[in-house]
Design goal:
There is one protein chain. With 187 residues, this protein is of the alpha+beta class. The protein has 5 helices and 5 strands, in the order ααββααβββα. The protein has helices at residues 2-7, 13-66, 86-96, 113-124, 168-186; strands spanning 71-76, 81-84, 128-135, 138-148, 157-166. It has a 5-stranded antiparallel β-sheet, sandwiched between helices. β1 (71-76) and β2 (81-84) form a beta hairpin.
Amino acid sequence: AIIDILSKNPEKSEIQSFLLNCLKFLSETLAPFEMKIRGYQDAIKQLKSKTFFLEQEQAKINYIVNRLESGLIVVDVQGTILLVNSALKYYFLKYFNDEVPIGLHISLLPHNILSETITLCHSRFENESREIELSKEFFLKVVSNIIFIPEDDLKRPLFLIIEFHDISTFIQFDRLRTSFIAMVSHE
């Protein structure tokens, strides 16, 4: 607009020439930055796309993990709780009236047999299996598995997955079998 106004006034041709030179200088100077900005915009679009994809995958994983019948907790090497599914939350609420927040260190869990089992599994940090009794009629089989850093020659552990499987039915059947055998042998 300024150049148009100046072009209508011929006596101002020096100003017009100066402004054209300034405009040329600015466009040459800013051209690389414009390319960088376009590159950043493309990178931002790709990042948004990948973030959306990862959020969808995370939602799928959360859905699957929370639909498992077995309790599940994931703890990192330092002892921070990374994931707790709804089944394990239910066990904590039903039997101990406690919650298990994500991000909490296992040493800060309220003291009960579930948290003590989690702490014991973490202190040993090895693949193992044990049985615990929450009530006279409810038993859990606890299985801990170490997940290592993929393709790591040193086999450094990344985190520990602890599963809590309801084995109450099996224990009850075993008790019935034992009492049946005892009764039959007595007779």
